[in-house]
Design goal:
It is a single chain. With 168 residues, the protein is mainly β. 12% of the residues lie in helices and 33% in strands. It has a single domain, classed as Cyclophilin (Beta Barrel). The strands form two sheets. The chain has an eight-stranded antiparallel β-sheet with strand order 3-4-6-5-7-2-1-10. The longest helix is centred in the first third of the chain and has 12 residues. The N and C termini lie close together (10 Å).
Length: 168
């Protein structure tokens, strides 16, 4: 049985393809696929971009209105979930969260470079198989700030056209 695969289509940037790992983070993968199939991500942006670290999206519209989804349990080692051994290396998809380990919902990030300090702290759940050029282009965009709480924001919005499941 093969792992689920998705396409992240980014307006004016191209497409990133990823494989998801339900054996590492079953609830996280199930939640992400459900949101993708509901077209939840269409029109949302990558709102936090840090070159050499990661790109984060899945929670805000281009005018910075929140788009909320139900929270899920954090599937990572420091939250008592030992099955997830996926490392935060270049191209890995992982769930963003607050200080609450069970606060992940729809916001995700894609690693631009390796970040071993995140291993076991966040629910990594997939990895890019194609579209690293798109990742690099997004990661090197010009960024600024929208005040204290919104740092590393792309100056020009980077919109997710769609995230679609291409193989279950």
């Amino acid at each position: 049985m093969s792992n689920p695969r998705i396409e992240i289509v980014v307006k004016n940037y191209g497409t990133m393809t990823a494989e998801l790992y339900p054996d590492m983070a079953p609830k996280t993968v199930e939640n992400f696929i459900k949101l993708a199939e509901e077209d939840f991500f269409a029109g949302l942006i990558f709102h936090r971009v840090i070159e050499g670290f990661m790109i984060q999206g899945g929670g805000y519209t281009a005018d910075f209105k929140d788009k909320d989804a139900k929270t899920i349990e954090g599937e990572f080692r420091s939250n008592g979930f030992d099955a997830n051994t996926l490392k935060h290396t270049r191209g890995v998809l992982s769930m963003a969260r607050t200080n609450d380990p069970n606060s992940a919902s729809s916001q995700f990030f894609v690693m631009h470079r390796d970040a071993p300090h995140l291993d076991g702290q966040y629910a990594a759940f997939g990895k890019l198989t194609d579209g690293f050029d798109v990742l690099d282009k997004i990661a090197t965009c010009r960024t600024g700030s929208l005040g204290y709480y919104m740092q590393d924001v792309p100056v020009e919005p980077i919109e997710i056209e769609t995230i679609r499941v291409i193989e279950k």
